[in-house]
Each structure stands twice: as C-alpha cells, then as structure tokens.
Amino acid sequence: MNPAVNMALRPWREGDADDLVEACNDPLTQRYLPLLPDPYTRSDALAYIGNGDTARAAVVDRDTDEVLGAIGYTPGRDGGAEIGYWVMPAARGRRVATTAVELFSAQLFQSDFQRLYLQTALPNLASQRVAIAAGFVREGIARGASRNRDGSRYDTVVWARLADDPPGPSPRALPDLPDGRLTDGVVVLRPLTEDDGLVTYDMRILPEVSGRSVVGQPIDPAAVTRQCAESGAKWLAGQRAEMTIRRAGDDAYLGEIALYYAEPLLREAMIGYSLAPEARGHGYAARAARLVTDWGFEIGMNRMIAGTAVDNVASQRVLEAAGYSRESVQLTRLPGPDGTRIDNVAFAKLRPAAI
C-alpha cells in the first residue's frame, strides 16, 4: 500500500484540467458517477473549473500540489449537506478520500452545518469503507435514490455524521477476516465478490440446493451476480458475512458459506452453506463450518446456530463434525417447494469458556 500523504483542499485551477480529464474518464469513476459525460473532455473540465463553485475543492498533496482527488457538497434542508468525492487512480490506497472527507467535514461543521451525509452504491465497497473510517454511521438503504446514464434508478446506502458525533471510525459488528481469508490449509474462505457470480449461480440453481434454500431458486445469473456484488455491503452493515469455499493449492471453487448475524443483542449468529456436487463427500463443508464458527467466537459470538431439513442427513453430519449439537426439531419452520413447509433440525454450538 502506498503511504499516506500530507493533504490540503484548495480551489480548482485551469492547470488542473488534464487531471480532471484523466480522473473522470477512469472506468471506476465512470461506474460510480454515471452522470459524468462520457467521454469526459477538456472542455468539460474547463467548464467545471470555470464554474467557480465554492462548494467544490481539489484535494492536493500539500507538499507538491499534485491533484489527488475532488470533494464537494450540496446543501440540503435543515442544516444538512451531502458530500461527494472521487480519487485519482494513481492516488488510491493512500487514505486520500478518508482524509479529504475528514478535513471537509470539519470545515462544514465549522460553517454551522449540523448533519452531513454520503450516498454510496451498494457494490462500491471502497466508498463505504471511507464512510466508516471517517466516522459516518450507516442509516439504511435509499431505494432508487440515484440515476444511471440510461435513466434507470439504483439503490444507495446512506451514511450520516452529526456535528457532535465522536471521531471515527464508526463501529462495525462484523470485522474483516484476518488477512482477508480463513484457512486450515485444506480449504480457504474468502469474501464473496461480483467475480463469483456465475459459479455461484451454477451451484444455487441446482435443485438439491435451491430446493433446500430459504430464499429459493435465484431468478437469473444477472440477479445472482448483483447479489454477489452487493454482498460486501451487507458485511459492512453487520448483517451477514458471505464467503466462497475454495480448495487450497489450486483455488478450485467448492461452494459457499455465510455467517448471518440476526441477533446482535444475544450475540448469536447462524451459519449456512452449500457445496458444488464435485466437492461433496470430502469433508470440505465441515472444515468450512469449523473455520466460520471459530471466527464467530473470536469476534465475540456467544452461540452459533445452524439448521437442516429432517431428511438432510449429510448436512446434519457436517454440523456434528464441526462440533454442533442437535437441540430440537422446529415444526414447519422452513419454506419448501411449491408453497409447502419443512421441519427444521436445530443445531447449536456454544462459545468455549477459554475464548
């Protein structure tokens, strides 16, 4: 990772036009700022600079005056303002956006704004991490709050910070995995991403998987890819941590596993998993379940639970191998195919006293 820089905010200058053109034609910038002109020309840059809008600032290296990014705000009602920003491709990974948001927020609060907020696209995990690092708190999903180039609308995550909030970062219920993964040397678990969309769809569409899933059969590959792309937002929100199961060594796809955190007051989380057909019968699911369960206890869970259909003996053996104990049968708890209901065998594992 590149080192952090000594940063400043200043007005835009005509000499910054080439930097604006480079940044605003970057594919990632275009993806998450879809209303930018495409292509973004030097004329667009000069018009932006010539606007003289004092609500916009260039983010620069204080020592060299190199343009690192941009930040600005749009006034709202009742003392509120929405902040927006982007970072030059070469400056990413240097805490530029977080530092800029912190500096800019301090200026706006000194100007008597009382509430600042950000809106981030669900797949834009980097921007959501900026919000968390800068002390903004996730408030929820704004449905259809932003517009694509073709006029369609998409949901955004809303983050807010008040003038009297404590310094960041804001707390997270589900931290990142240590070193970005969990492994026992045989299987490797990594966060689910957009790139996992097609293999995830191919597995979820199998009748033995979709027929036993609470969410049922996925709609289409595009829907599953979108779910995978938005999975990280649920992790950052503290709702669930979804991971792929890979074989150590050749990185072959084996399936998926997730920790669902629905009971934060009780410090109780649930695990669920599915394996691709060629991965079954090798103990991979039990290994993945042990890894996720142990991680759950390490991050403070008191009790981990799971469940299976009564006739799903293979899954029950997985849970027993992972150290879970059978507790009860919950009648008609699970949705079945064609509107039916299925009994659930409830399993649990308690936090070891030594942890």
Instruction: List the uncertain runs.
Output: none
Describe the main β-sheet briefly. Answer: 8 strands, mixed
Rounded to the nearest angstrom, the distance between the terminal CA atoms is: 32 Å
What would the CATH topology of the largest domain be? Aminopeptidase
Quickly give the CATH architecture of the largest domain. 3-Layer(aba) Sandwich
What's the alpha carbon Rg, rounded to whole Å? 24 Å
Q: Tell me the β content.
A: 25-35%
Q: Helix tally?
A: 10
CATH superfamily of the largest domain: Gcn5-related N-acetyltransferase (GNAT)
Oligomer: single chain
Helix fraction by DSSP (H/I, runs of at least 4): 25-40%
What would you call the shape?
elongated
Give the integer mean of the pLDDT values: 94
In total, the number of strands is: 15
Strand order of the largest sheet: 8-9-10-11-12-13-15-14
Write the H/E string, N to C: EHHHEEEHEHEEEEHHHEEEHEHEE
Could you name the CATH class of the largest domain? Alpha Beta
